[in-house]
Known about the structure:
Layout: H1 2-11, H2 25-41, H3 45-62, E1 69-74, H4 75-88, H5 99-111, H6 125-139, E2 145-151, H7 156-168, E3 176-181, H8 184-188, H9 190-198, H10 201-207, E4 210-216, H11 218-224, H12 226-247, E5 250-256, H13 268-273, E6 285-286, H14 291-297, H15 300-319, H16 327-348, H17 354-361, H18 364-367, H19 390-399, H20 404-407, H21 410-415, H22 422-432, H23 434-449, H24 452-462, H25 468-488, H26 499-527, H27 534-555
Parallel strand pairs: 1-2, 2-3, 3-4, 4-5, 5-6
Helix pairs in contact: 2-3, 4-6, 4-7, 5-7, 9-12, 11-12, 11-19, 12-16, 22-23, 23-25, 24-25, 24-26, 26-27
Amino acid sequence: SNTREWAAMEARGEVYKGGAYLTNTEELLGPLVTCYESLLEVGVKTVANGLLLDVIRRVQCFGLELLKLDVRQDSERHADAINELCEYLGKGSYNDWEEEQKQTFLLEELQGRRPLVPKVWACSEQTQEVLDTCAVVASQPREAFGSYVISMASKPSDILAVILLLREMGMQRRMKVVPLFETLDDLDGAAESISQLLSVDWYKEYCEGCQQVMIGYSDSAKDAGQLAAGWAQYRAQEALVAVAQKHQVELELFHGRGGTVGRGGGPANRAILSQPPGSVDGRFRITEQGEMIRFKFGLPDLARQSMKIYTNAVMEATLLPPPKPKQAWRDEMDRLTAMSVKSYRDVVRGHEDFVEYFRSATPESELGKLALGSRPARRKQGGGVETLRAIPWIFAWMQIRLMLPAWLGSDEALGTVIDAKDKALVQEMIRDWPFFATQIDMLEMVLIKGDPRIARYYDQMLVSDRLRPLGVSLRDRFRDMVKVINQLKEQSTLMESNPAFGESLKVRATYTNPLHYLQAELLKRERASEGVSEKEREQVEMALKVTMAGIAAGIRNTG
């Protein structure tokens, strides 16, 4: 009763002045277990194994906290905080140091006994936010938090910096600090970074024989295109498994997948069974985000079915792992992905009109003012595609049904094998290699959700004459990608082996197509709203929100 009252008052921002309340799971579990054991001793097994045992199991499963929170912050924010601290203490500019110098400094401080952060220090607002977050984490019991995830991690110093900041804010336990390798370069360097870290005796003792690593799907695809990102993720996992075996630690891979193909989405069982051999090993940690939470866990029966799918796939991938790829397959993937990265970046980074076209043709600019996401649309204000978060990047293209992040680059790379001797090899890879088969199947699934006719309508309504040739080029490439997939799979139409899926899209199109045309008109009004009353502007924004949510629900993708 006291605990419920305390929690309710804390939620309202009020000060609790009542009696003692529970602060950790053991305080709740201990008396329950004592009652259970006492009932068994006196022979009342029926009562002990009834509702009391159910409660004990729930407490053990969910704890007093009900769920564990993960903390997530960008590596740059931690580095900036330590940089500001070092400059204040006269130690120089941390951000200008070489990686080896950073590691030496961080390890010396971690193994030292004196505090590093002064008691009186007027730091910047951003640094104070980082320190306050670490202080909150440090003040809570172990079971309240899961992992501290570091976005855009690349070097061992990124992990050591977080451990130091947590310690300086009073952390007296060992918390899992999890690097999230996101870009193509970071994924390629992930194994070397973890190997360097585990070679440090102090850190190896700190991690207690278990290293968790998060694999980023979203930003790697935004950085290099879907095909190259998928192959980089596969290679990174292979290399991390080898590093863990070398250093004799358990490896926990945490997959940061979203709902869309561009963010690692797709059927869960296919995703798990297509992982590299040895990477699942009885465990599989994964994020479920956006609309996928409702689709997979919104009802008890759905939740049970989803858990069965996950459990079955993890058991199968552990006991009957997929075959290791042949060297010829690996060589072909290296060739295809090198070509796809260049093709993707030539457009996204190299075309002088791309960013302007993207912001004109899609609702990207409007996403920031609409309450459709849990985080800001951009990591930094201004800048190009590189500053945009992966969710709005994919969301924007999905809204106009061009689905560009999932196929751009793959069209040119896979197009080279159609009339070449490599075609038979690629078809063999589709048939015999679960990883590659899943990549192609997910690409096919996203293509059937695309509609270049709708994308053309957005161009007609929103894009200037100067930018329209780029839109024409992208839609032509989309159609070429469809032809390539059909030729590789030797079929006349997409999803020929699963006609029910195509029919379901046709049914949904009855509702989604009008929303697209309405959205294009609303975007045009939104962008020409000078002289329009505040009430009318609010009505347009509300209508835009409805069209976005409706399209996302109909296509079953937000980003």
